[in-house]
Specification:
This protein is an alpha/beta fold. The protein is built from 16 helices and twelve strands. Strands 3-4-5-2-1-6 form a six-stranded mixed β-sheet, covered by helices on one side. A six-stranded mixed β-sheet has the order 8-9-7-10-11-12, with helices on both faces. Helix 7 packs antiparallel against helix 8, helix 9 packs antiparallel against helix 13 and helix 14 runs antiparallel to helix 15.
Length: 455
């Protein structure tokens, strides 16, 4: 039996450890399927009241050996995450106890769950849609609090409702077209052509607004790219460490210490920052250092903000001019080592040694990183929905293309109304596929392929 056929079935009762492996205080074992209550009884958890955590002494169903003093919670279908009867066992952590309970569940009639199978069953049983399922994965994988908040909003159905609203707009236009075809009347018919034109144009604007949120979602997920650049010994690594509050980069008095880019994510509000400490920019014959400098220039081309660093005012100005040739990002001249010389005309003078000027510099970086995200945010829907996945963006762009083709055909009269309406039907189906209204096995396989075991 293939993985796909196992996932598509849903008749088996599945089990998995839902908490990470390793030393820990607690572990959670999840069971889902028609045998959930039977498995509980086999392990010694009799007469469990639904949705109430009950202390039980778990025993192996074959030899009666005591496995753990644990908590068991039974969920009766359809009132569970998967929509099936489910059992959650909270045991002591570590390696021995959770795996022993897992083996006991298998002995009681379960099979091991595949990655994402719990969430896939939730989708197949109508508990959540595909977009919400992706939000579950995004929440688990979130590296920033901003992405975590966005995933929670998506899990709550905000983005799904937005797709549903767009689909309803398409249906509205289809209804107008159908009425115009069925009841043509005389002259312009019962539906003014301008009304259909305006509805399609409004729908295009809504699609464009949602598509425009994709860059902001990427920024929330990965952080705005902030490159710390300058010549060797300009204090870049010290500044990098000071902003992070952690000694992530090696700091020495010798030029050329940083020979490759070092990245770190600074999770701050309202936008996380992806800080990059780069190799010192200078002419060099050292092939290794030259490779590091080439890496630095690649980062500069992709940056949202660049800190042009220097130990003196002249160094800062020279660095800012030199960097401008490599990037279109906002450049913030930054005077480092201000503790050595307080006299400066540079607005942002910092001392990694003393910590002075860092808060003001960080505020300037965030302000510089925000304009592009503000543009996306202002274009987004009132509910804050954003496109967090390439699958969403690709499908929405396809739907937009269909609506644009319909509008062109409608305005020019190049196609009969009934033929032009085919584009509306295609757009509606594409929007429906996003949330799983039309479920394809290969789409589900790709979606759940990278999920955690037990989720």
């Amino acid at each position: 039996m293939t993985d796909s056929s196992l996932l598509a079935g849903g008749e088996d009762t599945i089990v998995a450890i839902a908490t990470p492996a390793g030393r820990g205080a607690l572990a959670t074992i999840r069971v889902s399927g028609s045998l959930a209550a039977t498995v509980a009884r086999a392990l010694g958890a009799d007469h469990l009241p639904p949705r109430v955590a009950t202390r039980v002494r778990l025993r192996h169903p074959v030899n009666g050996e005591t496995l753990d003093d644990a908590l068991a919670t039974l969920f009766v279908a359809p009132h569970s995450y998967t929509g099936e009867s489910a059992l959650e066992l909270s045991t002591h952590g570590g390696a021995v106890v959770p795996n022993g309970v897992l083996a006991a569940c298998v002995a009681a009639g379960c099979r091991l769950a595949l990655p994402g199978e719990f969430t896939r069953r939730a989708v197949m049983n109508g508990r959540i849609d595909l977009v919400q399922a992706e939000a579950v994965a995004d929440l688990v994988d979130a590296r920033t609090s901003a992405m975590g908040r966005q995933a929670l909003a998506q899990l709550d159905g905000g983005l799904s409702r937005r797709f549903g609203s767009l689909r309803d707009e398409v249906l509205g236009i289809e209804a107008l077209i159908a009425y115009d075809i069925d009841f043509p009347g005389e002259d312009d018919g019962p539906v003014a052509p301008e009304r259909i034109t305006q509805s399609a144009a409004s729908l295009l604007a809504s699609l464009d607004a949602l598509l425009a949120t994709s860059p902001r979602a990427a920024m929330l997920r990965d952080g705005a790219l902030v490159v710390i650049a300058g010549p060797p010994n300009a204090g870049k690594s010290s500044l990098f460490n000071a902003l992070l509050g952690d000694a992530r980069a090696l700091v020495t008095e010798y030029a050329g210490t940083t020979r490759d880019a070092i990245e770190a994510l600074l999770d701050c509000r309202p936008v996380p920052l992806r800080l990059v400490d780069t190799a010192g920019l200078r002419d060099t014959d050292d092939p290794i250092e030259r490779l590091g400098i080439e890496t630095s220039t690649r980062y500069l081309r992709s940056a949202s903000v660049v800190l042009a660093c220097g130990a003196s005012d002249d160094d800062v100005r020279y660095t800012a001019r030199a960097i401008a040739a490599y990037t279109g990002a906002t450049i913030i001249p930054t005077r480092t080592k201000s503790d050595l010389d307080a006299e400066t005309s540079i607005e942002h003078a910092v001392s990694a040694e003393r910590g002075t000027g860092l808060h003001a510099l960080l505020a300037a970086v965030i302000a510089a990183a925000m304009p592009n995200s503000h543009a996306s945010a202002s274009a987004s829907a009132d509910d804050g929905a954003m496109l967090t996945r390439e699958r969403h963006r690709t499908a929405l762009a396809e739907a937009r293309s269909e609506i644009a083709q319909f509008l062109e055909a409608w305005q020019t009269g190049a196609l009969p109304a009934a033929v032009a309406a085919v584009h509306l039907h295609a757009a509606r189906e594409t929007l429906q596929e996003i949330t799983g209204g039309i479920v394809l096995d290969d789409v589900l396989d790709r979606l759940f392929r990278d999920f955690c075991i037990g989720k």
